[in-house]
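Dear colleague,

Following up on Tuesday's group meeting, I ran the structure prediction for the two-component complex that the binding team flagged. I've pasted the input sequences exactly as they went in, so you can double-check that nothing got truncated or mislabelled along the way. The structure tokens for the whole assembly follow below. Feel free to forward this to whoever is handling the docking comparison.

Inputs:
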Amino acid sequence: MLPHLISARCRVGEQGGCSRWGDGWAAEGTPPARAPGRLRRAIRSIGQFLFGMTTYELAREARRAQAELHRLFLTLAFGDLVGLPVHPSPISLRLLPYVAPGLPGWRRSVSRPRDILDLCTEDVS
Amino acid sequence: MNALLVLLLACAAVVLGYGWYARKIDREVIQPDDKKATPAKMFMDGVDFMPTNRNVLFGYQFKSIAALGPILGPIVAVQFGWLPALLWILLGTIFIGWVQDYASIIVGAREEGQTFGALSYRLISPRARTILLVFIYFYLWLIMGSFGVQVGFNLLTQPAVPLGVLATILLGVLAGQMTYKWKQDIILTTVVTVVLSFVGIWLGTLPAVRDFFSAILGYRMVEGKLVSPTLFLAVTQAKLIGSLAVVLICYFGGVLPIWRWAQPINYVAFWIVFLGVVGGVLGLLIWRPDMGDFPVFTRFNPGVGPLWPILFVTVACGAISGWHSLVSSSGSARQLEKETDALFVGGGAMYLEMFFAIIAYLTATVAFGGLKGYQDAGGGAAPASVFSTGLATFMNKWGLPMDLGKAYGAVFLTLMALTIMYLVVRFMRVASAEALGDRIPILHNVHVGTIVALVLTLILIWIVPFLQIWVVFGAANQLMASLALLLISLWLLSRGKNFQWSFWPFVFMFVTTIAALLWNAYSALLVKLPQAKTADAFAAQLIIGIVALVLVVAAGLLAYDGLRALFRARAAAAAPAAARE
């Protein structure tokens, strides 16, 4: 969901996904070939700060929505891996090689204990 | 005292407090280690746990902690004179404010991103988490009441304001639609919605529009003043419409998906607020005013209560705030890329908030040329009006018309308050469902939970005077900060680290805020209640007195359990040492 909001705002990691919320608006375009000067670094830092205050939350929300759909899909297809009585179908087995890299993260995510004070991070939903 | 000198003092506080004291604590006590995996790396799920660039996280942390508290608090506190308020903003931040924010992030990061609720359950006692929840519910209710009064009674009742607020809200909804549904470029969305919001604010100041809203709010000219008819209690037609508008806006914020209402509106509102702050600071730098005849110190009790403990709770988030610990531990701690970023993110954002509080402080002390001007603008009872007029005066120095500046300042504050109020309503709704949902299943219904929270809010807005709500809110806020400091001290002790730098701030804040709450309970129940002549005045004092006592009892139980846990931990730490000797 919303790749226009997500992908442009994070540095692309080794596996093609976003491994780190990166440089905000300043990251758009190709990375600089040489080390940036002091002024450029300062401008980039201000850009990152403004991004953190503004668009970052929108991008997080988009990622959250994306993650929820992904979680739902994995639960339906591979729920048996976390103890849900979901009978794995042949299609699940065919999908397994593609989703296997993300399974540890998904298991951590669905089994993480949640507290009501988690809601203080502005994602009270 | 010149405004520039105040800004220089704030810069000196950053150099000494952040550059020396905070770095020393960070280096010698916490000893952050970049080789340690943070929760963001250990539990990366791409959403809540996600390594984030420190500048981005700094912006996120600052946006999450900066609300109406650092604006209204200093304006209320200058009733004691300019010196006590200034000293507490600077010293409170240097010795207590950053300690709590920074340490909350560190504790969260070292404890696998656990929230303070889970930590209090583990480190203090099982009942601590439940008490904390009750405490937080009352605290949030007071936030809703104090912000609601300012928006509903002081800001939306000005005929030039409603159109600007309405335009920004509708354009915020449009921003959500453009971003999430139409998938438009964020820069285009921002430019369109923010520019149109400014047009809306300007249109609101046109005479025809003001006359239209004046008619809706029921204003008539009586002896040269606009007066709205009183409908019930002390609520005029204008105040009734203003408070109902607040409740309606918050209702949508409470029940609609976050991306549909609260978040995009907050996004557009951010730019309005940000540009307002930039415009205000620019005017201040051009003008370079001094405080005129504003007194250094007025008197020990200017009406709001005695200097100690009331000053320390009225400044609120400008010096220290309990809300920050919740955001830091459950938000930023989970996104920390490296442990060494914690000081910059937590401490740095708190120092920036101190500057925010200083700007608000200056609107009250220098914009009106003295104490009389400040009091004529509304004084401590209407800090929102003081701020909007003060900001307009600053912006007038670079050419913005005063009328437009006032409307802009009022829209700015209204949006800032609403930004927090949506989230508080959502939290209250979820908290009531969790706490009472098993016994009263209907509370699980989104609409019922939201309406309950909003009805409680309306009771506070309509009945209780603002200053009383604000002082109790400030006390609850600081008390929560002191409980966070206790938890931090416990954690430091359990890790065998020096805990004095967080323990003594805890002692000071706890004693001060408990004293403030007891003073409020005494003043409400034993002084003002017997003198109450009307049913609503009686109810107001009863509500404030009872809320203050409930907070004292909850905090007392938490502190009792916490100190027992602290002594247990000290004894456990001392036992192996004694055995070795």
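Strands of chain A lie at 10-12, 18-21.

Cheers,
M.
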